[in-house]
Amino acid sequence: MSTGIVGIALISLGMVLTPGPNMIYLVSRSISQGRRAGLISLGGVFVGFSTYLAATCLGLTAVFAYVPAAYTALKLAGAAYLLWLAWNAVKPGGTSAFEARELPVEAPRRLFAMGLFTCLLNPKIAILYLSLLPQFIDPAQGSILLQSLVLGSAQIAVGTLVNALIVLTAGSLAVFLARRPLWVRVQRYVTGTVLGIIAIRMATDRSKALTAA
């Protein structure tokens, strides 16, 4: 289990550093309305992740119980998803999440709600849990539901911590990166390479698929 937690934590780190709807919204909100607004919005994103995790864990338990062969399919889907993220990180014309975007000032309740819906309306979150959690679950080690919750909680913890650091430093990072575009390029290529390597290892590792079958 400890190896799985480390693995999913590394994947979560790579994914949270790849610009997506959540990061773009949090950074834009923090730059335009301040750190407090960014943290309130992050609270909504956290609840959105937790909602998806609870639903996915229950679904995975049912799938593994009744359709063991689905394990392999989900594993390959997870590898393909990571390869897609890797490509989006390194493809030409990629943009930085730290480009300033003007947003209207909103009340705390609306900030929380917007963070929540930004997360819930992003279908990639559901794909993330459904396709990646099975990579680190070993049915021989006990409850699939418990393993799913522990692994998913590790992903949420890493994602929330890193996003909080980004929110708190968004303004300074935006200025820093605007003056050093090379750093943005390096971040994109390092993130894409790490995700790509993990995806290939997932797709070629057949040990867990055989155990699950």
Description:
- By secondary structure, the chain is mainly α.
- The chain is built from 9 helices and no strands.
- It has helices at residues 2-16, 21-33, 35-66, 70-90, 108-120, 123-132, 144-179, 181-204, 207-212.
- Helix 2 (21-33) runs antiparallel to helix 3, helix 2 (21-33) crosses helix 7 and helix 4 packs antiparallel against helix 8 (181-204).
- The radius of gyration is 18 Å and the shape is globular.
- Mean pLDDT is 76; it is low at 207-213.
Summarize the structure in short.
The chain is mainly α and 213 residues long. The chain contains 9 helices and no strands. The radius of gyration is 18 Å and the shape is globular.
- How far from one another are the termini? 19 Å
Number of strands: 0
Percent range for helical residues?
over 70%
Low-confidence stretches: 207-213
How is the quaternary structure best described? single chain
State which percent range the strand residues make up: under 5%
| Rg estimate, integer Å | 18 Å
Q: State the order of secondary-structure elements, H for helix, E for strand.
A: HHHHHHHHH
The major β-sheet equals: none
Question: DSSP helix count?
Answer: 9
Shape: globular
User: How would you classify the helix and strand content by structural class?
Assistant: mainly alpha
Average the pLDDT over all residues and give the rounded result: 76
